[in-house]
Amino acid sequence: MKKLFLLFAAALTLAAHAEDITLDLTTATDFTSNAVVYETDGKAVWNGHTKDVWDLTYSEEDAASMLLANDGKFMFEHNADVASNSWGGFTISKNAADTLNQFACAAKGGVKGVGSPFIVAYYQEYLGALTLTFDNFYYPKEIYVCQDMVTLLSLQNGDGFAKKFTAKDTLALHISGLDEDDHNTDTVTYYLAVDSVFNQAWTKIDLSSIGYCYALEFSMTSTDTGKWGMNTPAYFALDALTVSLESTTTAIQQT
Fold first, then answer.
1. Averaged pLDDT for residues 128-145
2. The pTM is what?
3. Distance between CA 149 and CA 154 in Å, rounded?
4. Most C-beta atoms within 10 A of its C-beta, which of 90, 129, 141, 142?
């Protein structure tokens, strides 16, 4: 009986993980399938803070319209405005700075360690949610999130636009799925700041409640909001998103 139980437990584990796909940023390419190239001198724009950042971050070329990974299984939207030296959506970075830098995160790298690649997201409230599209319908399982350095320092100290956060303030990241009718499925909310506690490391977020979807939408809300929307810098970092072709429940039933 014990042997049978162990075999059954092993089968459940295999069924639950057989179809898992985890974001691998070493496979990142631009929209034309060319491997991502990182800035080497960091002098492109933004006070020289673009070292180790995707060199098309501030480009309006067709190649920069989307960032791909895992042979196109994950597609991150990206936009830029050369005239104003601005960008939005997602970009990729391996910047390990611990200072005021929008392309750096509190962990100084991705989940694989200091200097490893990670995704930087910039949410522009007036443009709506950021979209990460899949090449198929999947069941999202989990994602890792970390605080961006510009956001973290603003939360801790305030800046010229945003106030220093207190125990009464919150900064929330909302993640929703898009179903076949382009309707939002369940939304998962994670607080990057709450009760004067700020995210400062990679944190795993359970996405299993989102269910079957072809894309994830990301948005943010802050208690520090003014006439034009959020005052808090709307940056965050993500990595190691895992999706599955089948839900854990389905895998257990099949087993």
1. 98
2. 0.89
3. 8
4. 90
